[in-house]
Specification:
mainly alpha; about 75% helix; 19 helices; about 0% strand
Length: about 425
């Protein structure tokens, strides 16, 4: 027994599987079986262990970081500079730096610790099954009529019950499901055998149902955009039909009575976006108004922003009493300024570019749809951050950068880039 435990503990994949189970472990340790100290710092300890494995892999591997290393280095240097230049609010600056860069290092973990595309398949199966568990909890919440906290129900809306599972809020669950749905769909298409296809079909439908039941419009639109991109890469004609079906579906949805279960709720959530009342409310104290405030902060300090942890997120809320920006993009725009937001966008775009390059190289491969599904999930999460602070949620930020590292690693393996 001891030898088995030591063997498992000496393998980086064991700890990566634990990282994939982050939302479940975190919920259990914080809500069900709270253990002093462990419940608060288990994730930091896990990241430290993975960084040790990452450093060892860096010393031993022939895999070399491609051009994104320059953007990554520049972004880290900028973060350090912003942190040390505001000594008057040192605590907020340090915490703001940690809230961003602690999770970006997961990119290095993904890049150096992934051994093969076969390992990626295994990781995606575990990810999808854990997402399936979260989806089941969310669906059961709605089925049992579990009341959603009032802060997540907008005044005047017909919906009062939104799935939120064990992951903070309906919008976070929506983003989580938008990541899982393409992955599960890719596993469904790729799998062979009736029972395997049946399993992944159930996972796909359950996570899609949970996504719809969150009532998260941003996640809905983000997934729709991601699915269009995936279909466009796979088959442009089908992508065109998908757009046509989407237009027809929206027109048909407009005429559906709001009394129709679920469909009427979806209609209410979507079409209230286009009412004058919603825009007025959003401009005064909602998203549009908060985005405007973040933009005004950037105008005051256009190049370097107001500083890390100073606006629009959890750290700024604790130290300065600011409200959430409801957009990680606008939060970063205010805190980093134009230079930082350009670097941040460059990092995300470069990572997705490597993912797209990998997909092109895997056409005809048995792993094509798994990688395509993961790529679609990352696009959905990145898009959702335009209208939500999704990267403020530790496990979502870790997933995004870790999986980006996976795609970049496989791209390098396919192209044999020069050494770091």
């Amino acid at each position: 027994m001891r030898e088995t435990v030591v063997k498992w503990g000496s393998q980086s994949t064991t700890w990566l599987y634990l990282l994939l189970a982050y939302p479940v472990i975190d919920y259990v340790l914080r809500k069900i079986l709270p253990i002093p100290v462990v419940s608060s710092f288990w994730d930091e300890a896990l990241l430290i262990i993975l960084m040790v494995f990452t450093f060892g892999a860096f010393l031993q591997t022939n895999r070399t970081m491609p051009g994104i290393k320059h953007l990554l280095s520049a972004f880290f240097v900028l973060g350090l500079a912003l942190m040390v230049t505001d000594m008057a609010n040192w605590e907020a600056s340090v915490e703001g730096f940690r809230s961003v860069y602690q999770y970006i290092i997961a990119y290095l973990m993904g890049f150096y610790l992934l051994k093969s595309v076969e390992d990626l398949d295994k990781f995606m199966k575990v990810l999808a099954l854990i997402g399936f568990l979260a989806a089941l909890v969310g669906v059961m919440q709605v089925a049992l009529g579990v009341k959603t906290p009032e802060s997540w129900v907008q005044e005047g809306e017909a919906i009062t019950t939104r799935a939120f599972s064990f992951v903070t809020s309906p919008n976070v669950l929506g983003s989580y499901m938008a990541l899982i749905v393409p992955v599960a769909a890719g596993l469904f298409v790729q799998s062979k055998g009736l029972w395997k296809k049946g399993l992944w079909a159930v996972v796909t439908l359950a996570t899609l149902a949970a996504l719809l039941l969150t009532g998260s419009r941003g996640a809905w639109f983000a997934l729709a955009f991601a699915m269009f991109i995936c279909f466009y890469i796979w088959n442009k004609r089908i992508a065109g039909y998908l757009v046509l079906a989407g237009v027809i579906g929206l027109v048909a949805l407009f005429f559906v009575p709001e009394s129709v279960p679920m469909v009427g709720t979806i209609k209410n959530r979507i079409f209230t976006l286009f009412t004058p009342e919603y825009f007025e409310s959003s401009s005064q104290g909602g998203r549009v108004g908060r985005w405007g405030e973040a933009y005004d902060k950037m105008r005051i300090e256009p190049l370097f922003g107001v500083g890390l942890g100073h606006h629009g997120g959890a750290v700024a809320s604790r130290h300065f009493g600011t409200i959430y920006s409801d957009s990680y993009f606008f939060k970063s725009l205010a805190e980093y300024g134009l230079i930082g937001i350009i670097l941040w966008i460059g990092l995300v775009v470069s990572m997705l570019k490597y993912g797209a390059g990998l997909i092109r190289k895997l056409i005809g491969s048995p792993h094509f749809f798994t990688v395509l599904g993961l790529f679609g999930g990352l696009i959905a999460v990145a898009t959702h951050n335009l209208v939500e602070n999704i990267f403020e949620v530790p496990f979502m930020a870790l997933y995004f950068w870790l999986f980006g590292g996976f795609l970049c690693a496989l791209y390098v393996d396919q192209t044999q880039n020069k050494r770091w």
